[in-house]
Amino acid sequence: QVPLVESGGGLVQTGGSLRLSCAASGRTFSSYVMGWFRQAPGKEREFVTAISWSGSNTYYADSVKGRFTISRDNAKNTAYLQMNSLKPEDTAVYYCATADGTVVAGHPLGTLQSTDFGSWGQGTQVTVSS
């Protein structure tokens, strides 16, 4: 278990931007795949994006491709989600999560399931007004 704390959510107008942060505790942050999920009211949790331990590989859901950018700073034990051109349908609670890199090694990031991620943050609300 890796304690995770998200921040940066809020209310923004359509077309606006937000940057979410996910701060992790522990000395093995760099060995984890980091992912962001979101869940809107009445909908299933959606896998949004993920980044490999080195940052060299990323995955984006089609719904956010070209608008969202995931990054990480292993020296700061922090992952980021830059969200641009936000739409009302992006409104959701956003969760960051970690997957053990040694467990998911060899699996394309886009094939990972929520069950592959062992630690989760508490979530941060993102609301996009129309």
Helix/strand layout:
Elements: E1 4-7, E2 10-13, E3 18-24, E4 32-39, E5 46-51, E6 58-60, E7 68-73, E8 78-83, E9 92-100, H1 101-104, E10 119-120, E11 124-129
Parallel strand pairs: 2-11
Antiparallel strand pairs: 1-3, 3-8, 4-5, 4-9, 5-6, 7-8, 9-10, 9-11
Would you mind describing this structure in some detail?
This protein has 130 residues and is mainly beta. Helices cover 3% and strands 47% of the residues. It contains one helix and eleven strands, in the order E-E-E-E-E-E-E-E-E-H-E-E. Strands 2, 4, 5, 6, 9, 10 and 11 form a seven-stranded mixed sheet that branches. A four-stranded antiparallel sheet has the order 1-3-8-7, with no helix packed on it. Strand 7 and strand 8 form a beta hairpin. The longest helix is centred in the C-terminal third of the chain and has 4 residues. It is globular. The model has no long low-confidence stretch (mean pLDDT 94).
